[in-house]
Amino acid sequence: LIGGTPSLKINHGSGTLVLQLKNVGVNDRRWHRLDVRSNSKEVFLTLDRCFSAIVMEAEGVESWVMTEDRSSCEIRGVTPNRDK
Question: Which residue from 61, 76, 63, 77 is spatially nearest to 15, judged by alpha carbons?
Fold first, then answer.
């Protein structure tokens, strides 16, 4: 945590990737869950299973269109260089 904000520094041997959730504070004296997922290059940092994601639905042509904004609870990055 940096100033109550979830942060992750990860290095798979090819350089350091730094991920930090913006405008999110977890210094509220409550339990929180942080998940880190990686597929060797791409890394995800997710807060509280992203329950705070904003889901928007709109009526499209013959169907409903749903989009999800996860920017308040998840950040993604790619480790530097080609190494895994």
Answer: 77
Report DSSP state, residue 30.
S
User: What pTM did the predictor assign?
Assistant: 0.76
Q: Do residues 70 and 27 touch, judged by C-beta distance below 8 A?
A: no
For residue 43, what are the CA distances in angstroms to 33, 52, 64, 71, 84?
A: 16, 20, 30, 15, 11
Segments of 1-84 assigned E as strands: 7-11, 16-20, 34-38, 42-47, 54-59, 64-69, 74-78
Task: Quote the CA–CA distance of 75 and 62 in Å, as a whole number.
Answer: 33
Q: What is the pLDDT along the chain (84 residues), one digit of tens a residue?
A: 888 889 999 988 888 999 999 888 788 889 999 999 998 789 999 999 988 777 778 877 777 777 778 888 899 999 887 755
